[in-house]
Amino acid sequence: MARPKIVMYATGWCPYCARARRLLGSKGVAFEEIDVEARPDAREEMVRRSGGRRTVPQIFIGDTHVGGSDDLHALDASGGLDRLLADRDS
């Protein structure tokens, strides 16, 4: 099975984006970061993919919409993030 791509829609100045970057970095995973300020069309794409959410970050692991930074940290606390990341190696 191919590894799902990790994508985070973000801005350079957002503290929640920085928090999510740190957590993903601590897991040792590579991810694509899309700056919604540098690419205004990407914000529309993010809103569509996330079901209407307009805040950054919005994080996707494969087809799974994880949500924002708080969602990512809650998923990690429950052990779900490690399971999602392990799935990408199967």
Task: Give an overview of the whole structure.
This protein has helices at 15-26, 40-49, 69-77, 80-87, and strands at 6-10, 32-35, 58-61, 64-67. The protein is of the alpha+beta class and 90 residues long. The chain has a single domain, classed as 3-Layer(aba) Sandwich (Glutaredoxin). A four-stranded mixed sheet has the order 2-1-3-4, with helices on both faces. Strand 1, helix 1 (15-26) and strand 2 (32-35) form a beta-alpha-beta unit. Helix 1 runs parallel beside helix 3. It is globular.
Cα shape: globular
- Structural class computed from helices and strand pairing: alpha+beta
The overall average pLDDT, rounded, is 93
Mind describing the biggest β-sheet? 4 strands, mixed
- N- to C-terminal distance: 6 Å
CATH architecture: 3-Layer(aba) Sandwich
| H-E order | EHEHEEHH
The percentage of residues in β strands lies in 15-25%
Number of helices: 4
The CATH class label is Alpha Beta
Number of domains: 1
CATH superfamily: Glutaredoxin
Q: Rg, please?
A: 12 Å
- Extended strand count: 4
The helix fraction, in percent, is: 40-55%
State the CATH topology.
Glutaredoxin
The strand line-up of the biggest sheet is 2-1-3-4
Unreliable runs? none
